[in-house]
């Protein structure tokens, strides 16, 4: 009986691995380093080796496994082919063929942010829902869209690339993607720090944020100051919330979700962040979506392995 | 053998009906008036009667039919329950139960704009695609989203309500939906006329649009003047294209479509309209989507009956 599956989340620094039962229980998780040298040529082999070692250690055979779910940081098409991953130094790769060849197991792959959205739908902040938007507010802004329980992969594997909607056509600085004025430039950790530096430069108003070197200001500093009642920090949070809340309301007109989940390092600011974003969202959303809850992600760094496991379970059992 | 189906598109003035073969050929189409008096209580009965009459006329039995697909102007959930339709004077209605009860046929219903998107994907401007955004630029702005061949219904039947994304938080006039600054206020026929009146009021620049009473200016007048080289009309078209092109680029970050289809009366302006919108879309879209074609809808008023038939075929054969 195929009672087990692996959920694997490939990041630029570490590969997170989880051994799951198909009922959804996580039996064990571990990490290996991501070796990105030489075009990341060792990464797939390393993943295959650690999974095979785990099977041997647990005395499990191929027949015990439904397969492997894999989340990777790049655009992945419906067939599991990734068309380049900058952080892994990868070009185009057929993941089911390569990792399947090494392990002898079925492999299903998805974009890491999309897979994390599936994880949050399954066991996290969106548990019980089938239509969900996840926005991951980290160094950049990633996202994943789930419609009727399925990842929206899109025609080029770019479904859910919501960090790159253009929210400000007046922006002069260039986003990592090459455009100017992407949501990521205001709603990521680096974006919030940039908004703070701009707000500091725009006035001489007092603020605790002036007590440290400008370049050292982080999104956490901004939210800490906001929670302590700092007016200038509150203006920064308002701008962040305006861009993000408005964009989420627009995304909601497209997919009409049951729930919106915010994850990533920035979301650790917690309830005050949620309240600020929800306020703008309510103002801007279409009437039938105004009460859509905006909640915090719950799985943290494990969203990827959970979602990858869920992908394997859904695909392997269909 | 169930070789036939009906595709029915319920509008506020007429009900359009099509008799299809399940291979996709339209055998006959006709219309009946929509009787909206007394809460639209006669509409479903009228539809049932005309379909039963057609079956008798053609000497076809229930066994010859896969069923009925129905597009209706309101939010329809996954079960085919409509939660109010202003134009039909309807409250909540279980369409499969009511129309199915009269006809003895299986009934699948969807929102009219969503169903039209399915039609354009099947036999219209998006033929051959499986991931599509349709924006219908009429009196209002409607829309339909198709992901992997399926309508995005959404959790409350409001999937694809893209006319009501809030694109201008500075707008003072109120949209029909109650919000201020919806895309519909700039990209619909009435919205383009409003933009023209504002542009005329903002300057004394010469324009052929000044040669008629302001209240009589239509979107067609604006595009006709634009095509004839009128500078003021060109500024109106630029504003329209800026709002619509930017919004489409944002929608594309969510669903990563293969093609974007523009329909509705405004789209009759043709190639110059497409070019204006495509230019902004290219500037604003995420890099992998910049080359997504924006094309004209091809089915005109028949998109609804085609899409409704396709809905019946997909659901009836699955």
UniProtKB/TrEMBL annotation, chains A, B:
The keyword Chloroplast does not apply. GO terms for biological process: glycolytic process. Its EC number is 2.7.1.2. SUPFAM superfamilies: Actin-like ATPase domain. Keywords: ATP-binding, Kinase, Nucleotide-binding, Transferase. Pfam families: ROK (PF00480). One of its GO terms (molecular function) is ATP binding. It comes from the Bacteria. GO terms for cellular component: cytoplasm. Belongs to the ROK (NagC/XylR) family. NCBIfam families: ROK_glcA_fam. This is Glucokinase. It comes from Candidatus Egerieimonas intestinavium.
């Amino acid at each position: 009986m195929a009672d087990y599956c692996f959920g694997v989340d490939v990041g630029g620094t570490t590969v997170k691995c989880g051994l799951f039962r198909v009922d959804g229980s996580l039996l064990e998780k571990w990490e290996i380093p991501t070796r990105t040298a030489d075009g990341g040529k060792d990464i797939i082999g390393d993943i295959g080796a650690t999974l095979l070692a785990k099977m041997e250690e647990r005395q499990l055979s191929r027949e015990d496994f439904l397969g492997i779910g894999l989340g990777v940081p790049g655009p992945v098409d419906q067939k599991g082919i990734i068309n380049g991953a900058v952080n892994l130094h990868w070009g185009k790769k057929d993941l089911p063929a390569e990792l399947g060849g090494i392990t002898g197991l079925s492999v299903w792959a998805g974009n890491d942010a999309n897979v994390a959205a599936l994880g949050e739908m399954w066991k996290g902040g969106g548990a019980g829902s089938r239509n969900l938007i996840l926005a991951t507010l980290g160094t950049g802004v990633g996202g994943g869209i789930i419609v009727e329980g399925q990842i929206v992969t899109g025609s080029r594997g770019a479904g859910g690339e919501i960090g790159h909607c253009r929210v400000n056509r007046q922006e002069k600085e260039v986003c990592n993607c090459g455009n100017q004025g992407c949501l990521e430039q205001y709603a990521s950790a680096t974006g919030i720090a940039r908004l703070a530096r701009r707000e500091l430069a725009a006035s001489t108003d007092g603020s605790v944020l002036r007590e440290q070197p400008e370049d050292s200001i982080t999104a956490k500093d901004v939210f800490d100051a906001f929670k302590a009642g700092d007016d200038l920090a509150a203006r920064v949070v308002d701008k962040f919330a305006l861009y993000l809340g408005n964009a989420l309301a627009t995304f909601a007109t497209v997919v009409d979700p049951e729930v919106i989940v915010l994850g990533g390092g920035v979301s650790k600011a917690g309830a005050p962040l949620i309240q600020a974003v929800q306020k703008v969202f309510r103002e801007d959303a279409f009437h039938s979506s105004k009460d859509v809850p905006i909640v915090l992600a719950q799985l943290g760094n494990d969203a990827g392995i959970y979602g990858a496991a869920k992908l394997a379970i859904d695909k392997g059992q269909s």
